[in-house]
Amino acid sequence: MFIELYKAISPVWHWLLLALDVCMVGFAVSHVLLRQRDGRIAAFWAVIIAFVPLLGAIFYAMFGINRIQRRGQKYRAMTEVERQAVLEACPLHPEKEVPELKLLGELAETIGKLSRYNFSVGNHMIPLRSEEAMLAMLTSIRHARRSISLCSYIFEAKGIGLDFVNELEKAKNRGVEVRVLVDNMGTMYSWPPIIHTLRRRGIRAESFMHSHFFFRVFSMNMRNHRKVMVVDGVTGFTGGMNIREGNMLSQNPKHPVIDLHFQVEGSAVRQLQRVFAEDWAFCCGEVLKGDLWYPELEPAGEVGIIGVPDGPDEDFELMPKVIFAAIGAAKKEIRVMTPYFLPEAPILWALNSAALRGVDVTIITPKNNNIPFVRWAARTLYPQMLERGVHILEADGHFDHSKFMTVDGIWSLVGSTNWDPRSLRLNFEFNVACFDDILARQLNAIFVKALEDCQPVSLQEIRSAGLHLRLRDGFARLFMPVL
């Protein structure tokens, strides 16, 4: 009887599934054609949707649609009074005269027009490596007297992360106003969830784009990848370092990570506070106001800085434009250190063009990548760069998560952005463009030191790789738009 019933129902289910597939494919392809701005990404998703029945359309709904723009539009569509309150709470007044920047020429002018933040002069920046940065941040929290704002993509609730929790709780108990923001996807990297741990200690904490576990997959392309901490509105920290035990190299962690972070002093700290305040208001509606968060700041050095926020909202694709402008302005040398090197076509062409006109272009990226799939895809890009004179080196040893770029020994770009499509297009990022020869020399010294543990990549090596390796790399490249 059951067999006969199955035979009777089976054709009906086949037709229903076919109709459902046609509808989903039609809707998904229409969305790709109407909404995807990048032709390569549109082609990638169109193939996936068309040739993977049902699942292709589901994958696109999960990973291909940028829902954050709707929420961003809602945020920007707040009443004028509410929106103005967020902006007025932390004004970024343009400098009346910045004679130092006039000497830097067109690049400074270009970045100044691209970013919605303003140039700030009279700043001091200190590069800090891994454990050194962690301890400096903890020390700053211990000395906090008024306020602490902390934003991180990953914030572990164990090891050094638990030390941060303990110090934040002590600060809260002595009357310091504490606000912590952690990306919702980033909370999946450790257990227990850091947000729960912080809230149990009485610390105000929010997750960016909060959703329940199952629905987190729908916000994978809307990550807040920014790393910012400001103490008392005076001392700031930013860069690419997460709060993880792997950074504590002296503790011999299971997964050691070399990283780079920066301590900032001077008027540019207000820009760090501003980017945190924008995200905080977006998440919970609270507007941070007053001298508690935005005190008057005195000059602290000679570094010219401009903040460069980037994200799939009003700052969409700002970082690729800034990088492209910097490469185009280079006269002598370009040095890039990044954990993930998958530049989009315009940046790739700009690097090749710079090398062809005689600029010394050198790139360091890890050989032992924590995401091997990214390295495999990247290796398919190497031949066209090596042919044009770009130098590519792969670093042995511990995974190096550092990310920075220097141009001509005077301009530096540091922050949270990786050189991959996800970071350049899909994530919320924060970087600072810095004009100072001393800072550039410090970063170049780190770069030169890293060269000691690097192996240059050659055309012969790439072309002589076994067929199975070339097929592996070619397959990985198919997924480059979403890596």
Automatic annotation (TrEMBL):
Residues 220-247, 396-423 form the PLD phosphodiesterase domain. It is found in: Cell membrane. It is a multi-pass membrane protein. The chain crosses the membrane at residues 12-34, 41-63. One of its GO terms (biological process) is cardiolipin biosynthetic process. Its main location: membrane. Its EC number is 2.7.8.-. InterPro entries: Cardiolipin_synthase, CLS_N, PLD-like_dom, PLipase_D/transphosphatidylase. Keywords: Cell membrane, Lipid biosynthesis, Lipid metabolism, Membrane, Phospholipid biosynthesis, Phospholipid metabolism, Repeat, Transferase, Transmembrane, Transmembrane helix. This is Cardiolipin synthase. One of its GO terms (molecular function) is cardiolipin synthase activity. It comes from Roseimicrobium gellanilyticum. Signal peptide: none annotated. The lineage of its organism: Bacteria, Pseudomonadati, Verrucomicrobiota, Verrucomicrobiia, Verrucomicrobiales. The keyword Magnesium does not apply. It is an enzyme of class 2 (transferase). GO terms for cellular component: plasma membrane.
